[in-house]
Amino acid sequence: MLRFLLIAIVALPLAVCPVAARAADLGVITGSEKGTYYQFGLNFQALGKPNGINVTVVPSKGSIENIFAVYQKPGIQGGSTR
Questions:
Q1: 52 within 8 A of 71, measured Cβ to Cβ
Q2: Domain-wise residue ranges, the chain
């Protein structure tokens, strides 16, 4: 399920944008730098880079901060929660 979601998030902008407009910036807030979700964010960043999607991975203190960040922090479009 997680892999499908990741592929969908990366593939959607590529499918709907013209070739010249594919460069994009995306912010993802994940969890602590030692956790699984942070590694997931880094993997997401690696998948986006060759396709012109610049993913910024931001560590956090947990799900509640992630939910807040998606709504309140500029540059954060996605986050992980449990």
A1: no
A2: 2-79
Residue 59 in tokens:
């560590």
| C-alpha separations of 62 from 22, 50, 65 in Å | 31, 29, 6
State pTM to two decimals.
Answer: 0.66
pLDDT tens sequence across 19-40: 545 568 889 999 899 999 999 9
pLDDT digits (tens, 9 = 90+) for 68-79: 888 888 888 888
Q: How far is CA 54 from CA 1, 5, 22, in A?
A: 23, 18, 10
- Both tokens of residue 40? 């997931």
- Confirm if 74 and 26 have CB atoms less than 8 A apart: no
Distance CA 65, CA 71 (A): 10
**2-79 belongs to CATH 1.10.40:** no
Q: How far apart are CA 40 and CA 45, in angstroms?
A: 9
